[in-house]
Amino acid sequence: MDVGTLTTGFLTGLREGVEAALIVAIILAYLAKTGNARYFGRIWLGVGAAVVLSVVVGVAIFVTLGELPEGTEQVFEGLTMLLAAGVVTWMLFWMRRQAASVSSELRAAVDRALTEGSLWALTILAFIAVIREGIETALFLVAQASAAGTDTGALSLLIGASLGLATAAVLGYGLYRGSRRINLATFFRWTGVALVFIAAGLVSFAVHEFIEAGIVTIGTDTAFDISAILPHDGPIGSILRALFGYTSTPEWATFIAWLAYILIVLPLYLRPVKPAQAHARTSESSPAASA
């Protein structure tokens, strides 16, 4: 069992899973509060469809990687890692701005579905909420599995992600039952910081793959070698490699790409920001609330 990739998978599954679980919990709690618990089945239908599609997409991408010729595979792996890093970066900033208003917006969407009689809109609402997190998770895990480079690492990643998702489901149930013990703002902030470093590792891995494929030809010399101090194939180094893309012998191009991502994205993520204004306001006198 690879502890590093297991931890990476767990963190990814937990972070993405909690976001999806939070959204589903808000929808279910609001339906229950307004006396519309009979429509729970519509929500679970949307959730189930999104989970199945996410798994299919992840498996399809992973299988495609294994079928490509060596040179093409490296390019495709590099592009997949860049795409995963880009999607995760977008998700981090989107969730950062929307965290304060997502609850009221979801409730407003549920109100519209109930008052307009379009109950399939509830299924679509749940599907869209979960599929976004599901596709992001699939891309991220495929990229991490490719970076792991071994079947053991890929299996450890999958087990970790499953444990993370299971933990997220438990937290989601606790949120639905009214638990307030977890500080979601703090949770998302610090797991977001960890994901910034993980995404930076994906960017550096992508550049390394492009070097191997001969696409990047500048900065291919080794920047430094600290193998004697912290080898990336040692007990600690392998964990850091799996988590953050660490290597004790980085090329200049990969090191600069990693450092540039951290120096640009991390300060932007941590800077204070005014929460996005909700597009719709939910009140006690809403049609659903008075049903």
Task: Describe the protein in words.
There is one protein chain. With 291 residues, the chain is mostly helical. It has one domain (3-270). It has 9 helices and no strands. The protein has helices at residues 3-33, 40-67, 70-98, 102-115, 120-148, 151-176, 184-212, 235-244, 252-270. Helix 1 (3-33) packs across helix 4 (102-115), helix 1 (3-33) packs antiparallel against helix 5 (120-148) and helix 1 (3-33) crosses helix 7. The longest helix has 31 residues, at 3-33. It starts with a helix and ends in a 21-residue tail after the last helix.
Supply the key terms.
single chain, about 290 residues, mainly alpha, elongated, disordered C terminus
- Figure out the total of helices: 9
**End-to-end CA span:** 53 Å
What is the number of strand segments? Answer: 0
Shape: elongated
Largest sheet: none
Number of domains: 1
Percentage of residues in strands: under 5%
Flag low-confidence runs: 276-291
Taking Cα atoms only, what radius of gyration do you get, to the nearest Å? 21 Å
Helicity, in percent?
Answer: over 70%
How much is the average pLDDT? 77
Give the SSE order as H and E letters.
HHHHHHHHH
What structural category characterises the helix and strand content? mainly alpha
